[in-house]
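Long-time lurker. I teach an intro course on protein structure, and each term I like to show students one example going from raw sequence to a predicted 3D structure in token notation. This year I'd like something fresh instead of my usual example. Would anyone be willing to generate the tokens for the chain below so I can use it in lecture? Attribution to the forum is fine with me.
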Amino acid sequence: MVQTMSEYHNPVLLKETIDALVTQHDGIYIDVTYGGGGHSREILKNLGANGHLIVFDQDGEAEGNIVEDDRMTFIKSNFRHLYKFWKWLDIDKVDGVFADLGVSSHQFDADYRGFSYRFDAELDMRMNENMGLSARDILATYTVEQLQNVFSRYGEIRNSKTLAKEIVDNRNKGSYIISTKDLNLILDRLRIGNYNKYFAQVYQALRMEVNDEMAALKEMLESSLRILKPAGRLVVISYHSLEDRMAKRFIKSGNADGTVERDEYGKSLAQMKVGSKIIEPSQEEQRINARSRSAKMRIGIKI
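-- Reply from a regular --
Happy to contribute to a lecture. Here you go:
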């Protein structure tokens, strides 16, 4: 099913992205989260005839948004493979790497992929539908301890152990969770606090586990450091605390742990420095684009 850019989402912090990222008119840039192509289109507008943009997206439906422009190369892959494909392309080090870590509006609104609790659909949640375990598989095979860890770590669910045990108990009785409707029936009984927030946190946790999102983000950040030129820019837009914390630590220290390595004289060996203070959408953007309300942009500069 081919989707148009408008069916994905309005790009968040668009002007701010260009201002932070594009410093060389004829430079080489990488957008590791192509999606509907909104940010990429604007990057291309700001590049000259000799500039080039490389884009990544593992979701096959993003291919329907490919821009017809000789200055752009599309790579259908998870951004965790950034370094491998940079080597394969055999190009110079790049002037900037951009990542918008939010799930697109299209993916949430697609009623057949199981990303949203608002639709009755099979629980899939794979960004790349041809790889890995689906959410349905995870709920059918993980132990209580594994599920508790997923809900607690990625969703900060307060009753994660109770929820995990309920899922496994139902499974042991032959009642498997196949669809969003099946999962929602359990969440209805166990939810704590706000309905929408609780459901969103559970679905977020499952999606992050299905797509191994935090490990993929770590690999992408580490790869970006290897392929950026001195003074090259890393621009990351995140939407929840786990991703933002990792981006913040990486930009501060050059590693995902946030530990600044020093030489024997105490001088920092960090290969990246903070490019500016955290940037958030204006009140006007938040008013017209609800998706932007939790967005935070961080900018790193390769030393």
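Some talking points for your students: The two ends are 43 Å apart (CA to CA). The mean pLDDT is 92.
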